[in-house]
Amino acid sequence: MFKALVVNKDEESGKTSAAIEEMSLERLPAGDVTVAVEYSTVNYKDGLCIGPGGGLVRNYPHVPGIDFAGTVEASQDARYKPGDKVVLTGWRVGEAHWGGYSQKARVNADWLVPLPEGLDTRAAMAVGTAGFTAMLAVMALEDHGLKPGDGPVLVTGAAGGVGSVAVALLAALGHEVAGVTGRPETADYLTGLGATQIVAREEINETVKRPLEAETWAGCVDAVGGAMLARVLGQMKYGASVGAVGLAGGAGLPGTVIPFLLRGVNLLGIDSVMQPYGNRVRAWSRIAADLPMDKLEAMVVPATLGDLPKLGADILKGQVKGRVVVDVN
Ligand code: NDP
Questions:
Q1: I need a labelling partner for 58 at 20 to 30 A (CA). Which of 110, 142, 152, 262 fits?
Q2: What is the pLDDT of residues 274-296, one digit of tens each?
Q3: Where does the chain cross the membrane (predicted)?
Q4: For the whole model, what pTM was predicted?
């Protein structure tokens, strides 16, 4: 027997409720690899799946947790054997499939990535989907020409999970980093991660009035979307790129195409869920090589399975700072 956070739905009222339950291996879904989960984390999607579901969860009872890291316990796939350390993000695990808020998980071998040298399971979940996505965004900016010395790189939603890792990564890679935050009290935290400039959210959150403003940013990792993204597009340097990662501030894009046409600005879509295996391996090895572990540690907020209902509600309100690491045992 083992423990898992299970979300049940009351068919009459339609309300969901999450509680820790004792489970047996037979209840786990079909899959070719069984993992003894060590750590998981909390993302915005987890907040939705612990709570009312947000249209992501198909069937109840449900075990949320969109990412986890642990040790292979049993495998019917030649690529994995008991004792291997693995990490999983995406593939709709924790949404359509049972996820990582459990001491055991059974999944498809194709969804796993072997943990790279230099990262343990706890560090992997301090990174989690949020940090993995930040790395994908940084790689996309590099693939489109960004290099240290080009000028300040903007990170929006800087004190959140994606933002925190993006700030630390970019600074470690030698970029000048500006972080946008709506929480001025996080300024010291962001400076500690390597930001050299803090931009107040309200300065940059207003609707576009002029389609082009002063050419300011050499690149941008955007976790916010909405009015802020539209505004940032008009502030990019000639030929610079924005990695569009999130929608913490809205799914709209109330701007103009002028920055694309007159400044050759690139808007790069970043998806972590269906990312092909090769690029996943590349991103995880870049994380192990380039993300300073002391900076990662500074982002960690430790938690247990029992903390998850509250943390899920907090992240939906934008009140989680940095990266929550859930010790499921
Ligand atoms: P967090 O909640 O940890 O961070 C989001 C941050 O955005 C907040 O901390 C806050 O930063 C800022 N923010 C929140 N609300 C607003 C608002 N109304 N206006 C402006 N800024 C706001 O979430 P994550 O970092 O985990 O995820 C960020 C986004 O990226 C989410 O939308 C998430 O769904 C998405 N995402 C997408 C992925 C993909 O594959 N494309 C993968 C992972 C996440 P501050 O307090 O500093 O202002």
A1: 110
A2: 999 999 999 999 999 999 999 99
A3: 123-141, 153-173
A4: 0.96
